[in-house]
């Protein structure tokens, strides 16, 4: 009974908190009187237990003259044990506090979500603006390639396809997250789809026709060169070129114009590096092309690729890609399916087996300067420059004892031990690069941004040295590396990221 009364008092206070004390007091007086009557009646009829029902008054007068708010009927009864049981029906006008709290939480959540989506829209608008500019740039590039179809390369298509794929992924993301009208996004998607079809069409045209046309043009140029050299039908024929891999000549006398083979497979930013063709004296006709761009720091050699044919290199197909962590500088060469590199931060040379990408031998180059001490002019980290010719493996470097002048050493290609050494009078940092042909060192220097000059030679066979004046064109300003191939009798030049090759011409052998 006491618990029931307490509960009723709490309810009454909740319904009218301002006058809860007065309501509770009046109600308690009424209930006490009713209970007293009921208990008296029950005592007079003892021992027969009874349950008496009572009804609370509807309203009670207040001292201030006000009226108590109307409540639903409540009933009470006393059971056979003398315990009072009460029940109350609350009015229908109870304020929905829980619903109000849920509504407030939902409004706060929706406000946060709206702010988040609004920030996404602002971000997407900026990204769309950037990609709009990229799309315009791609359009210009494609139009240029349409007009100059012979000059573009496969890498251009690869770069364009990557950029178009990135834009297509962004459009898909925008469509998934963008709320509202997507007319602009749909229009961009259509333009990107059209761009993809156009690039695929041009790429097919290049593979099927333009590459063959380029080969035909090269063959025609060769024939025209032969006609020009012969002067006339009556002119006596010059001496035949030396046999591939042969040293039956009087040394380099001229060089062809550069032939642009390709941009390196890592892109325009990778300006330092080397490339060439593996030379194996036992199987000189076999082809294995290698391309080794340095990282953008111009120092670390981390990735290189191998191609079985020149066509694979041109089309970037069937490439074998490997990773190493110790190569330094662009003085790289390949001989008998082994790559020779300068070990990072040391004067050591490493021999890497290209079959399994494992280091088979490391050897210290005695007294060699390293860590950019006497590197070539405008080419950093190439203190140790490895080279191959008809005689085998060489290394071109400098020492403190030579005061920076070029030192040439013949190496054992198996053990990397030094077999013989020659010291020249040419200061190495004034040379832009160098290569070996039949035991003769040829050094180059820069004349201007489009021309090099083969200006110096040192013959290890005779110990003679002297000056030359053979001009050598180039595509970009700096020549990063030069590798000679005895069977092709060509120079493979890495020119600020571009892969060039040159045909060498020799003097007839002295009789």
UniProtKB/TrEMBL annotation:
Pfam families: OLF. SUPFAM superfamilies: NHL repeat. GO terms for biological process: signal transduction. Its main location: secreted. It is found in: Secreted. Keywords: Secreted. Coiled coil: none annotated. One of its GO terms (cellular component) is extracellular space. This is Olfactomedin-4. It comes from Castor canadensis. The gene is Olfm4.
């Amino acid at each position: 009974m006491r618990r029931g009364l307490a509960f009723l008092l709490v309810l009454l206070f909740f319904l009218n908190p301002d006058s809860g004390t007065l309501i509770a007091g009046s109600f308690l007086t009424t209930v006490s009187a009713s209970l007293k009557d009921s208990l008296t009646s029950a005592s007079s009829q003892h021992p027969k237990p009874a349950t008496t029902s009572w009804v609370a008054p509807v309203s009670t007068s207040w001292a201030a003259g006000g009226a108590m708010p109307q409540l639903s009927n409540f009933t009470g009864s006393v059971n056979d044990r003398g315990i009072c049981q009460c029940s109350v029906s609350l009015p229908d006008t109870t304020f929905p506090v829980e619903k109000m709290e849920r509504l407030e939480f939902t409004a706060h959540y929706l406000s946060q979500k709206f702010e988040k989506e609004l920030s996404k829209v602002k971000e997407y608008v900026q990204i769309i603006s950037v990609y709009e500019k990229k799309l315009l740039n791609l359009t210009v590039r494609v139009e240029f390639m349409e007009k100059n179809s012979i000059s573009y390369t496969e890498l251009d298509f690869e770069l364009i396809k990557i950029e178009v794929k990135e834009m297509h992924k962004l459009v898909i993301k925008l469509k998934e997250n963008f709320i509202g009208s997507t007319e602009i996004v749909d229009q961009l998607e259509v333009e990107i789809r059209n761009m993809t079809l156009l690039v695929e069409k041009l790429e097919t045209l290049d593979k099927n026709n333009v590459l063959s046309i380029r080969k035909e043009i090269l063959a025609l140029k060769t024939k025209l060169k032969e006609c020009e050299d012969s002067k006339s039908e009556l002119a006596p024929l010059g001496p035949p070129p030396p046999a591939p891999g042969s040293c039956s000549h009087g040394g380099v006398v001229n060089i062809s114009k550069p032939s642009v083979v390709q941009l390196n497979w890592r892109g325009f930013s990778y300006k330092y590096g080397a490339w060439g063709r593996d030379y194996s004296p036992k199987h000189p006709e076999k082809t294995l092309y290698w391309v080794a761009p340095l990282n953008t720091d111009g120092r670390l050699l981390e990735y290189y690729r191998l191609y079985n044919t020149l066509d694979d290199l041109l089309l970037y197909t069937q490439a074998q890609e490997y990773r190493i962590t110790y190569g330094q500088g662009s003085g790289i060469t390949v001989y008998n399916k082994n790559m020779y590199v300068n070990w990072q931060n040391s004067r050591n040379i490493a021999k890497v087996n290209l079959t399994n990408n494992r280091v088979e031998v490391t050897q210290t180059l005695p007294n060699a300067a390293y860590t950019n001490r006497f590197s070539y002019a405008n080419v950093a980290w190439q203190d140790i420059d490895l080279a191959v010719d008809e005689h085998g493996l060489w290394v071109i470097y400098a020492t403190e004892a030579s005061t920076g002048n070029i030192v040439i050493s013949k190496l054992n290609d198996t053990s990397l031990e030094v077999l013989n050494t020659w010291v020249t009078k040419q200061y190495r940092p004034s040379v832009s690069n160098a290569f070996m042909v039949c035991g003769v060192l040829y050094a180059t220097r820069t004349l201007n941004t489009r021309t090099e000059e083969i200006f110096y030679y040192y013959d290890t066979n005779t110990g003679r040295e002297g000056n030359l004046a053979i001009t050598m064109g180039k595509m970009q300003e700096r020549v990063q590396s030069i590798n000679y191939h005895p069977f092709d009798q060509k120079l493979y030049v890495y020119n600020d990221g571009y892969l060039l090759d040159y045909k060498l011409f020799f003097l007839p052998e002295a009789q």
